[in-house]
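Quick start: read one record
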Amino acid sequence: MNFKKKIIFLPFSTLLLGVASCSSSVNPNEELKTFVWSTYSTCKVIQQANKNSKYIDTGKKIDISMMKGEKESGQIIVTSNLETKINFVYGQLVNENGDILPKEKVQIYLQKYLKVDINKHGGELFDNGDHIPDFLLPMEKAVEYDENYVSRNANQGITVEIDSNGVPAGKYTGNFKLTINNVEEDIPVSVEVWDFEYVGKSKIKSCWLTYTNDLFGYEYDSTDEKAETYMAFTSEYKACPYLIQSFDKNDPVTFADQMERLFAIKNYNTIVIPYDFQLDYVYGKDYEKPAKFIEEIARRCTDENFYLDYAVFYPSTYDEADADRTRPKAEASPNFFKKGGEYQKTLQGAYNNLKTSGFFNDMSYAEELRYKNAILNIPAIFTNVGFIENWIENWPATFCPYESLLASPKFRERYIDSSTRCGNDYWTYTCTDPDYPFPSHHLDDDNLSMRVLGWMEKSYNVGGYLYYETCLFPGANPGQYHNQYSTGLRYVDCNGDGFILYPGNGYGSETPFPSSRLITYRDGLEDYDMLCIYEDLLNKQALKYNIPNFDPKDYVNDIYDSLFYNAVSYTDHS
C-alpha cells in the first residue's frame, strides 16, 4: 500500500522537539515535517538535527555581500523528520538598474557529511560521532546520482556560491526554487555587489603541495594532464600549487610552459619552482638545475607578466629544521640560508649565467637591474615549529613559522623586523599543528577560524601561507579500499588534515570538487585583498591631506579586535 506524504512546515523550536523525539522506526502514516532556515556561511551545521539549538537561525533566506571580482557563499539548511528528496535551483536575480546576475555566476552545492568518530581537534564545537559537512557536491551531480535527499531526523545543508567577476555593482534580489518532496517553495536571495574590486594579482602568496603519487590513489590517474587539472583547480581558490613528482620529470622548459598556462588564472600568483635542495647541496657544476629554472623563467618574462616577481622556492628537505631531533637539518641550515650561503650563491649564479649569455645586452641598465633584483630576492621558504632567535636575527631567509607562534606580540615584531631588514616577506603555515584554538584546516574545527586567518595575516604583515598537502591519500595499506568521499581521517590523529579536495572520478567529473574548508580559505584571502584596497585608499587620503605619522592600521584595529586576539579567532560567527 502506498501512503502519500504530506508536508507540514513547523516553527524551528517545534521541529527541534519533534525531530529529537522521533523514533528510529518508520511509521508509514507519519507526516513529513520540515523546516527551512539559514545561518552564517562560516558555521558548519552537523547532520544530526537534535543539536540545532546551538545554531543561530538567520531566517529562511540567503543574504550575501561582496566586492566585485570575488566569490562569496551563503547556505540554506533543510531539516526533516523523514527522508525526503530535495532540489534547489537558480532563480533570476535582478538589481535596481535591471542588470541580471547570470545563472552561470551561481554554483549550488549539496553539502556532504563525514563522520568524525573521535574529535581530535581539541575544541568544543563538535562531539564524537558528529557528521560534519565538508564535501561540496554540485547539485546537478547530486540529482544525477540520486543523492539529493535529506536523511531521517537530519539536516541537509545547501551552499550557494556567487561569482561577481564581471558583474555590475548593485543589489540583486529574487527567489531561488527549493523543492521538497515535489512541493516547490520560493527562497529569497539577496546579493549586494559593492562598487569596488581588487585589481591585479593578490599581494599574499601561497604554496600548497600536490603529490602525483597521491593523485593516483585519489583519481586512479597521475598523468601530467590530471596533475595540471588539479593545479589549475586549486589556483582558482588562491591555493597555488607545488607539484611534487619524480626528480627526472622536473624540466625547466616544460615547467615554464605550464607556468605560462597557469598564470592566465587570476588567482595564480605564486610560481613555486619544483626543486628541493638537499642537505649536502653546494652550488656548482653538479648542482646548477635550480639556476636553470630561474634562467628559463627570466627568459619568459614580459613587462606585463614579470614572472620572476612571483617565483619562490620551498626547500622542504630543510622543513622544520628546528624540530629535527637527529640534528642534520639544523646543522645544514646555516650553510644554506646564511648571507653568502649556498642559496644566495644559486641566485647570484643564475644572474651571472644570464649576464654571460648576453641576455641583458639589448636592455637598459634599469631593465637589467629589475631582473637582477628580482632574481636575487627570490624567497626560500623556511618552515619553523619554534621561534629560534639566533636564526631570525642572523639569516636572510623567508621564515615561515607555525601560525600559533604569531600569538606572541614579541615574536611577531621580530619576524616583521627580520623580513623588513632583509627586504622580503615572512610567511606562516599550518599542517597537523597548530591545534585548537588556532586556525586550522581540520575537519573538526569550524570554518570561522580559517576565514579570520586572512584578517590575521593582513594585520600581522604576513606575505604568504603554506599548507603541506591538497589531496592526501591514506595509502599505508595499498590493498585496502578508502572511500575518499567519507574518510575524514587521512593522517594519524588529524581529522581532515592533508586533504582539501574531493576526487571527481566517482561522479564522472574531470575536475575535483571543493571542500567547504577550501572555499572558506579563499574567502579569507579575498578579505585580505579587500583590506589592501582600504589601506591604499587611506594612504592616498593621508598623502592628500598631509597627515603626519599616519598608520592605516589605526582605522581597522577595531575590526581586528572584534575578530581575533593574538592569533586566536573569536567564536561569534556574526
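The chain is about 30% helix and 25% strand.
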